[in-house]
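Late entry, written up from scratch paper. The run itself happened at the end of the previous shift, but nothing got recorded in the book at the time, so transcribing now.
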Amino acid sequence: MAETTQWRPAAGQIALIEPVDASPGRDCLTGVVVPGERILIDLGASPRPESDAAEVVASFFAPDALYRLFAKAHEEADGLVSLDVSAIERVQRRANPRVQVVLPVRLGVGDTAEAAVLSGETVDLSTGGCRVMTDRPWPTDGGAVRTQARVVTVDLNGDGWEYRLAFPGIAEPDAERLSRLVALGG
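Output as recorded:
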C-alpha cells in the first residue's frame, strides 16, 4: 500500500467516515464531498461526529484505487464536516499496475468482412487491460461484440467515448511486451 499526499476526493464523491475511537454501537458516517478548496463532507441525515476534532478514517472509491484519509473531523455547520488530513493511503484495486500512455489503437467489432473498425488511442495500459478513447461510439445493434478485450465500462466525456477494456486471455508474449512498457512508464 503506497502513501500519497497528492490525491483529494472530487466534489460529489461518496465518503465513508469511520471514527477511530467511537463508542460501542456507534455507526460509521456517510456523506458527499462538497465543492471547495478544503475537504468538506455533507453528512445529510448521517449521524454527527461524537466530538470536535474526532480522529477518523475517511474512505473513497476512485477508478484507480481505494483512498483512505487519516484525518481529524471538525463540524463546520449543521451536517458539514471538514477533514484535516494527516496521511493518505492508496490501496490498489487492480491486479496489474497501470501506466498512462497514449498509443494508437484499432478496435474491430464483429468477425465478418463488414466488421466495423473504431480508431482511437489508449489512456492507460497494463498487462490486464487498458482504457481507450474513440471519436465515435461503439456500434450496438443488439448483437454480440467479439473482441479479444472485454468491455468493462463506457463513458461519454467532452473528448469522446471512453472504454475500459480487460484482457482476460492475453497471450504470454503480448503480456511480456506490455509488462516491459508498463515498467518503463510508457
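The helical segments are 172-183.
(Scratch paper discarded after transcription.)
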